[in-house]
Structures are given as structure tokens and as C-alpha cells.
Amino acid sequence: MSTPAQTLPDRVDLLVAGAGTTGAALAGAAAARGLRVLCVDRGALDAAGARWVNGVRGEAFEEAGVPLPEGEERRGGGDAFHMLAGFGPERVLIRGHGVLAVDMRLLVARLQERAREAGAELVGGVDVLGVEGGVARTSAGTVRADVVADATGLTGARLLGSPAIPRTDICAAAQAVHAITDPAGARAFLAAHGAAEGETLCFAGVAGGYSILNVSVHGEEVDILTGSIPAHGHESGRALLERFVAERSWIGSRRFGGHRAIPLGRPRDVMTDGPVVAIGDAARQVFSAHGSGVGPGMVAARMLAEALAHGGGPEDYAVRWMRRHGGLFAAYDVFRRFSQTLTLPRLRRLFASGLLDAESTAAGLQQVLPAVGLERAASLPRGLLRAGAVSGPLAAAGARMAALLPLYARYPRDPARRAGWSRAVAALHGGAA
Questions:
Q1: How far apart are CA 347 and CA 188, in angstroms?
Q2: Where are the alpha helices (DSSP H) in 196-271?
Q3: CA neighbor of 170 nearest in space, from 330, 281, 258, 277
Q4: What Å distances lie between residue 342 and 53, 114, 135, 207, 232, CA to CA?
């Protein structure tokens, strides 16, 4: 591991702040395309990024040009996914969803090693303090860089002067892997909820509104993932996790895991300022319907690396990303804002209506829009009728989602036109920029 005392290069093509998933992926993708890259992290390199197990869409690896995880890095994936309203019995069952359970510690280490092998220089214990005129000030000296990418996340460098994110758009998530001390007790828990080993039980709305508790048993261990928005008066993800463990005697000691705040909301309207560009969580490239930013960050990393390698700049990357992905992410954030208003009884009513079915839930997991064929379109009026009071807000959310897509497809290349575009997006989306 590099030390802060290491001398930094005087000049690079790309300086990446943050050596977690997105930053390490960007460093490797850019270096592999011939750019001189320096990637720094304010902490130790072997502590960068998430330190837990996360669900990552398998296709994101292909889109990012990163080989699929193997061995211990891949803890599971593609098995049945049971989404329940609270602790049931209403549920949606999805098979073949393509979401992999990935040990983020090992993924980050692999991405960092790939970056080194491609020729990038990685240094830990260095904080980027600011950028002026193409010169980055760091805690270890100055570095002249053509482009500086902020991949430091929600609470990092904020090199673009990120506006404060409303607390109602911050998910408090936690994940932990625990030993199983009573295998029979674990099997009984799975059986009671209609699941088998390796499958995921997703208890939605357990703390009210936008909140989940995911449980998956793998051999002698259980993976537990939680998330909620405490600003709405709900328990934090960490509190949910700790209470769940304390109430189940078959769960033993914690082996690893962590907790962090995840930015929700629509993507940043503006991702660049001169040589500085935001990427990953710093750009709010998070699929907020379920708070997932790992796959999107890796995909954005490849897009930025390609733009720079082909002689473009940060603006080329920003326009391409927003036109291709921005509408989808903003649309699903509208659905997230709708979901956080649901009480558990209304969530159960939504499940029972058939509107939240296997097809639409699988689309959300895979981060795509659900297909609307003739049969599905014909069933919508009946489903809305069964949904009762939920139908009005859901229909309104669906209309806003559909209207956002063409707006993002026309994201202005001319920065002078973006203020008007932002106002139009804000009027449809209803949340902070």
C-alpha cells in the first residue's frame, strides 16, 4: 500500500479523487486507454469504498468492461428474490433477475489492482482540497491535471461545490455478514417465509415508507442489508439491522459489514465545471428506487474514460451520460418519492392489486423500464381500480416518469440552455436538483 509520503507526479492527464469502486474503475479504464492517471484517496487504499456485500446488476460489469466476479468475491446471485410487503404474506417472486451478491472489499481490491496493471498510480492518505486553473491542491502537494474527477461520494471532496442534499433524500443503509450459530433456526426462518438457502427475502416497508430489510443465507453465514430514510421519522438502516439480529437467536457474531449514507434524488443537473467532473455518488448517479450506485458508477467510469481517450472532455461525458441514463434514473426517483409515502397497509393493497408484479419488480432490479405490452396495458385499469386510494398518486407518478424521459434525451449540450432545462425537469420531478 502506498504511503502519504510518496511524491506525487507533477502532471497527469487525469486525477481521480477517491479510490473506491467508481474511482478505481475510472483509473483503470482511463489508464488502459493510454492516459496518465493518478488516483488518490484520503484514507488507506485497502479501506476505500464500501466494505460490505452489495447487489450489483450482472450486466453492469459487461457494460463497464469489468469481468464478472468469481470465487469469494461473488457470494451469490440470480437466485429467487422474494419481495414481501412487510413480513408478508403478500409477495412478488422474481427468478432469473441477474443481480449478483458481491463482496465489495474484494471488488474494490480487484479494481485497484487492474488500475495498477494498466499503469495508473494509486496513492492512499492524500486528500484533494481544491482545484484552481487546472492545478489540484492536495494534502501532499499540487498536481497539474487536465481533468480532475470527483469520485469521493456524498461526504467527500465536493470539488463542484455540491449543494446540500435534503435529509429526505438521504438513505441510511447498513449491511452485515453474521455467523449462523443455529442452522436449524436459520432453516426454520427461511421456511416460515417461503424461501430457500441462497434466495433473498426482501421485506419492504418494514420501517414505513421507503425502507427494506434483505436477508439471504449462504452456508454458515447470513447476509443482512437494510435501508431507510430517517428524516421521515423511521429507524435508520443500522438500527433496523441491529434490532433484527438481536431478536433472532440463530444469528451469531458479526464477521464484517458497514453502514453509510447514500444520496438519492435525481442526478445532478450539472456534472462539470471546467476541468472538474463529478462521477458516481458525487454526481448522484444512484438508482434510487433501491439505492444502488455500484454498477452505475462503473458504467459511468467507462463512459468518462472513453470520452477523454477520444479527445473529448468532461462535457462530452456528461451530455452522453445524461442523455442515455439520466431520464431513467430521474424517473425511478419519482417512483422512490411515491414509495416513501406508502404506509404498510397501502403497500399491501398495491401488492394485491397486481400493479407491482414480477415483471415490473424485475425491471426495477435490472435498472430498466418495464415493458408495457398490449396485455399489460389492458390490465392497468383493473389494477388501478383494485389499488383504491393508492391508484391516484401512482398514476400521477407514472405520468411524471414518462414525461421526464424525453427531457433527458434532449439534455442541452449548450450550458447556456441548461437553466431552462433544469426548471422544466424540476417541475416534473418535484425534488431538489
A1: 26
A2: 237-246
A3: 281
A4: 28, 43, 48, 11, 12
Residue 41 contacts residue 126 (beta carbons within 8 Å): yes
Task: Write out the chain's pLDDT in tens, 433 residues.
Answer: 444 457 899 999 999 999 999 999 999 999 999 999 999 999 999 999 999 999 999 999 999 999 999 999 999 877 899 999 999 889 999 998 889 999 999 999 999 999 999 999 999 999 999 999 899 999 999 999 999 999 999 877 788 876 678 999 999 999 999 999 999 999 999 999 999 999 999 999 999 899 999 999 999 999 999 999 999 999 999 999 999 999 999 999 999 999 999 999 999 999 999 999 999 999 999 999 988 999 999 999 999 999 999 999 999 999 999 999 999 999 999 999 999 999 999 999 998 898 888 888 888 888 988 876 656 666 777 878 888 888 999 999 999 999 999 999 999 999 999 999 999 999 999 876 6
- Distance between CA 196 and CA 193 in Å, rounded? 9
Euclidean distance between CA atoms 178 and 221, whole angstroms? 6
Omega cis (within 30) before 183:
no
Task: State the pairing for strand pair 141-150/135-138.
Answer: antiparallel
What are the start-end ranges of the H helices in 11-135? 21-32, 58-64, 104-118
Q: What is the pTM of this model?
A: 0.94
Q: Which residue has the cell 474494490?
A: 108
Task: Give yes or no for a contact between 139 and 4, defined as CB atoms under 8 angstroms apart.
Answer: yes
| Nearest residue to 266 (alpha-carbon basis) of 339, 327, 196 | 327
Give percent helix, percent strand, percent coil of the chain, each to the nearest 5: 40, 25, 35
Cα–Cα distance, 77 to 70 (Å, whole number): 11
Cβ–Cβ < 8 Å for 356, 342: no
> Which residue from 294, 10, 4, 11 is spatially nearest to 122, judged by alpha carbons?
4
Q: Is the dihedral of CA 103, 50, 67, 127 positive or negative?
A: negative
Sign of CA dihedral 413, 416, 417, 423: positive
**Segments in 223-321 forming alpha helices (H):** 237-246, 294-309, 314-321
Contact of 161 with 200, CB cutoff 8 Å: no
Q: Is 10 helix (H, G, I), strand (E, B) or coil?
A: coil
Q: What gap in Å lies between CA 430 and CA 433, rounded to an integer?
A: 9
Q: How many residues does the chain have?
A: 433
